[in-house]
Amino acid sequence: MAWFLLKRLAQSVFVMIAVAFLAFSLFRFVGDPVSQMTGVETSAEDRERLREELGLNDPFALQFARFTGDLVRGDFGYSYRTRQPVGAMILDRLPATIELGVVALLISLVVGIPAGIYTALRPRGVASQSILLLTLVGVSIPTFVIGIMLIFAFGVWLGWLPTFGRGGTVGIGWWDSSLLTLEGWRFLILPALTLGVYQLTLTMRLVRAEMMEVMRSDYIRFATARGVPWRRLHFRHALSNTMVPVITIIGLQFGGVIAFSIVTESVFQWPGMGLLFLESIRFVDIPVMSVYLVVIAFFFVVVNLVVDLLYVAIDPRLRVREAS
Question: By the 8 A CB rule, do 177 and 184 touch?
């Protein structure tokens, strides 16, 4: 296990270096930040002096080395637009994105896993076919369309839920939480549903496919022939083996929810990291854009590392293979 962990950590370091390089190099072509920071009345001398102060005239290798060195030290630099520390801006938006992603993932698991089990055990039932049809529609509709439909139905037509913003929060240290107030939950429901519909569909179909595959295996047939009660057969033997690959997908889904919450945050004006990233693109705020991608990549790397360790801990066959 120790050798496996060291190998995964080394791979994670290389991944983070590659992501930092891509993030830093790609955003050099989105526009000139000096033009966004100054007005038309600014002289050419003042523009050049500002470029020199920001280090934009330095060679690319020197700029990248300075960027990665600052990241390692925990110094994320300053925003070109607001002149605030990028780290403070990310931390200020992080709770909103994390809570939105966690609630959306919980919705997908609470609904998707039981629905996947039901449709696997009764594949030809009318209810199962209806669920499969609804999930097919859900996975085919773009996220922003789902969000607009929910806004119209529950915000405009019925008037039950608010359609933008985050609502009331409770501060716990530096973390501002929406989960501790009723108003916060009212603002959270629609964006969480919008973000969780696609993940729900993937979870349900994966659980269904894995459950049906396990139910066709030889040991399930032998257990059926021995007269094992169906509840024990389905929910102890079959489901426990079904959840092994599902754990991997759940971890990847959480990283995907955090990374791809940009559209949902834009539709609902949810003040998270995704909305901050879109605002940074508009103003060519290169430090914020670069750090955002690095932070998202760090989430993916940490989640994948935890999932790999859980996978090895759960499946003894992997432990034997890694040790050999």
Answer: yes
Beta strands in the chain (DSSP E): 170-172, 175-177
pTM for the model:
0.80
Tokens of residue 209, six digits: 């496919």
Contact criterion met (CB below 8 Å) for 168 and 181: yes
Q: How confident is the model over 152-165, as a mean pLDDT?
A: 87
Handedness of CA 68, 72, 73, 79 (dihedral sign): positive
At 59, give phi and psi (nearest 5°): -60, 155
Q: What is the pLDDT of residues 10-28, one digit of tens each?
A: 888 888 888 888 877 776 6
Buried b or exposed e, range 23-61, using 16+ CB within 10 angstroms: bbeebeeeeebbeebeeeeeeeeeeeebeeebebeeeee
Q: What is the DSSP letter of 177?
A: E
Tell me how many degrees the CA angle 30-35-39 measures, rounded to the nearest 5: 150
